[in-house]
């Protein structure tokens, strides 16, 4: 276990930057600033406070510790050049908009997340760190930042909000890269078009902000939010995140982008490529995605080909809805449940992408600690889960299906009859409405999320262990019982081998399942972190052998995942590399993101492959 230290500032004698201040005041100012644009809405203040206090009471690690190492410089950049570069970018966008990352690192919590490193560090906290953070305030300043990076050969990593926790947060893949935090100063809701049911936003607009604005304007529109509402609408769509209304596929519901290319040039996609009258934006920019010619939006999602400065999103007209859940008694009902969902989803009878969860999730969404149910280390036994679940509102069961139907009430009633008649084919299955369950049951929060109301409830499962961090493992499987069982068994066995509780949530569509597991570890326990890395590596490999690949991953596993998409001598990656080298010859934009390395870094030991299980230090490795 890491030692518990005290909150002290690192004296950094080597470098004196204009921006160096005491950690406390910097943090305070930063938090106050963040509060204004990415903070929690008033309606959730108290809930946030409770969530925060509960999480912090389960933390044994100090708030911060003195830094062990000096500022991590970008690769191939001397201290002298770095100092000159910092001065230059300060001159271009303002001293106060450039921060050197030389203070103690603070993991914070969801609402006060760092932009200096990965808050849920799976490696040493000081490994995935930036050298500095810059805050451009306009598209022109993003262009200036990109040109600056080219001049000094400094890798830059754009984030919108940086709450991509579980996938690497705000961390740069190359330690010492400069984080470009777009959200702090670029957080305008440029337009909400109530008739077209769409909006145009900058990177720093969170789900909370957009939702509150629509409520303030009393517009009959829904947003689509992921499980937690503090992320960026634009950033999440670029990373192909999902939500739970019928508009849950965020990238599919984008409409028009503005992108700064790695050479600093500015591009608009879709109808935005056609200038509007008198210098205005094109009037159909948020109405038609594809426009004319190749549809290139996709190459800017999960890639490192551009920095997105504006994005249009389609909004859903508000409609009546009804959330509900079913429970199923036996672990072995799994295959049949999946096979029953498939036709219901394909025919459009299920209203949204439902979630199928194992009953162990009922325990950890209560916000209680694992130690309430289980003594010592090692995963909970099935008997312990059964005994604990029996005392909860849904009772002793095995799988829980959370769904929502939409439309006029008569239509919802008819849909529910069809769905019930299908799921009741499984002996012992039960049906619940929110009114059947206590007011603090998770179903009430699902009802909010599934009608586009962003919440914080999903933070509660982070209390499971002390100092909890988490990683997502997110493969895609076909919606077919036997395939779902194959992938489930791989994941169950791997968790057993490494001693982790398994928390599966399956987002089941008509043809594919996002099988999302949450690996929860104690950030103070180096052995547990090392086991989590092995667990990830093995699951990626074993799933790929059966043809199952991840749709998204933590940045340290991106090379391995990208390497599994290797059909025809890795034609897909070679295509991506060709685009990368053309657009970004100096290799400055987010090298390594999604496993795409520019020529400058490619094959020079930066890639982390299946056999790289020691992630204690991140940097170029000698050829094996
Ligand atoms: P959120 O806070 O919404 O969860 P992030 O801002 O952390 O999301 O973004 C997730 C990832 O998407 C980032 O790590 C980055 O790789 C990419 N990304 C985010 N915003 C942009 C952007 N505006 N342009 C290019 N890439 C971005």
Automatic annotation (TrEMBL):
One of its GO terms (cellular component) is mitochondrion. The keyword RNA-binding does not apply. It holds the Pfam family FAD_binding_4. Residues 1-40 are annotated as: Disordered. GO terms for molecular function: D-lactate dehydrogenase (cytochrome) activity; D-lactate dehydrogenase (NAD+) activity; FAD binding. GO terms for biological process: lactate catabolic process. PROSITE patterns: FAD_PCMH. InterPro entries: Cytok_DH_C_sf, FAD-bd_oxidored_4_C, FAD-bd_PCMH, FAD-bd_PCMH-like_sf, FAD-bd_PCMH_sub1, FAD-bd_PCMH_sub2, FAD-linked_Oxase-like_C, Oxid_FAD_bind_N. Gene3D superfamilies: 3.30.465.10, FAD-linked oxidases, C-terminal domain, Uridine Diphospho-n-acetylenolpyruvylglucosamine Reductase, domain 2, Vanillyl-alcohol Oxidase, Chain A, domain 4. Keywords: FAD, Flavoprotein, Oxidoreductase. Residues 17-26 have a biased composition (Polar residues). Residues 126-318 form the FAD-binding PCMH-type domain. This is FAD-binding PCMH-type domain-containing protein. It comes from Daldinia eschscholtzii. The lineage of its organism: Eukaryota, Fungi, Dikarya, Ascomycota, Pezizomycotina.
């Amino acid at each position: 276990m890491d030692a518990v230290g005290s909150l002290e500032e690192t004296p950094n004698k080597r470098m004196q930057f204009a921006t160096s201040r005491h950690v406390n005041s910097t943090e305070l100012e930063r938090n106050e600033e963040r509060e204004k644009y990415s903070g929690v809405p008033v309606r959730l203040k108290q809930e946030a406070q409770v969530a925060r206090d509960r999480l912090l009471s389960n933390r044994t690690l100090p708030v911060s510790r003195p830094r062990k190492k000096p500022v991590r410089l970008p690769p191939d950049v001397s201290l002298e050049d770095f100092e000159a570069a910092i001065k230059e970018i300060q001159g271009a966008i303002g001293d106060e908009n450039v921060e050197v990352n030389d203070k103690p690192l603070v993991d914070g919590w969801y609402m006060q997340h760092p932009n200096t490193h990965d808050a849920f560090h799976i490696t040493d906290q000081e490994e995935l760190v930036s050298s500095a953070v810059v805050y451009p305030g306009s598209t022109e300043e993003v262009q200036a930042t990109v040109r600056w990076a080219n001049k000094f050969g400094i890798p830059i990593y754009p984030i919108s909000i940086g709450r991509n926790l579980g996938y690497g947060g705000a961390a740069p893949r190359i330690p010492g890269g400069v984080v470009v935090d777009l959200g702090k100063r670029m957080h305008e809701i440029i337009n909400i078009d109530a008739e077209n049911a769409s909006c145009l936003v900058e990177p720093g607009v969170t789900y909370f902000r957009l939702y509150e604005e629509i409520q303030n304007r009393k517009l009959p529109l829904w947003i689509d939010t992921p499980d937690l509402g503090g992320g960026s609408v634009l950033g999440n769509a670029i990373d192909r995140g999902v939500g739970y209304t019928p508009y849950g596929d965020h990238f599919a519901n984008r409409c028009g982008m503005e992108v700064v290319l790695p050479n600093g040039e500015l591009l608009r996609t879709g109808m935005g490529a056609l200038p509007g009258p008198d210098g205005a934006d094109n009037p159909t920019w948020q109405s038609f995605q594809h426009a004319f010619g190749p549809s290139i939006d996709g190459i800017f999602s999960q890639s490192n080909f551009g920095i997105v400065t504006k994005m249009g999103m389609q909004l859903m007209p508000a409609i009546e809805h009804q959330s509900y859940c079913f429970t199923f008694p036996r672990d072995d009902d799994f295959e049949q449940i999946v096979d029953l969902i498939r036709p219901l989803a394909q025919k459009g009878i299920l209203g949204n992408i439902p979630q199928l969860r194992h009953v162990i999730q009922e325990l950890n969404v209560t916000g209680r600690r694992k130690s309430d149910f289980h003594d010592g280390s090692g995963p909970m036994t099935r008997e312990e889960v059964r005994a604990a679940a029996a005392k909860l509102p849904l009772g002793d069961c095995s799988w829980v299906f959370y769904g929502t139907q939409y439309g006029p009430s008569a239509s919802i009633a008819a849909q529910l009859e069809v769905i019930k008649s299908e799921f009741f084919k499984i002996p012992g299955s039960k049906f619940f409405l929110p009114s059947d369950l206590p007011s603090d049951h998770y179903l009430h929060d699902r009802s909010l999320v599934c009608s586009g109301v962003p919440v914080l409830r999903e933070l509660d499962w982070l209390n499971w262990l002390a100092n909890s961090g988490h990683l997502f493992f997110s493969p895609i499987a076909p919606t077919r019982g036997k395939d779902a069982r194959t992938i489930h068994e791989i994941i169950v066995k791997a968790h057993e081998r490494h001693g982790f509780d398994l928390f599966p949530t399956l987002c089941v569509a008509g043809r594919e399942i996002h099988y999302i597991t949450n690996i929860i570890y104690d950030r103070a326990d180096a052995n547990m972190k090392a086991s989590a890395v092995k667990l990830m590596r093995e699951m990626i490999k074993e799933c790929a052998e059966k043809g199952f690949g991840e749709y998204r991953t933590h940045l340290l596993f991106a090379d391995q995942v990208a390497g599994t998409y290797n059909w025809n001598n890795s034609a897909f990656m070679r295509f991506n590399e060709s685009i990368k080298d053309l657009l970004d010859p100096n290799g400055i934009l987010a090298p390594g993101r999604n496993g795409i390395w520019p020529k400058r870094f490619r094959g020079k030991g930066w890639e982390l492959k299946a056999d790289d299980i020691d992630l204690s230090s991140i940097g170029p490795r000698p050829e094996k």
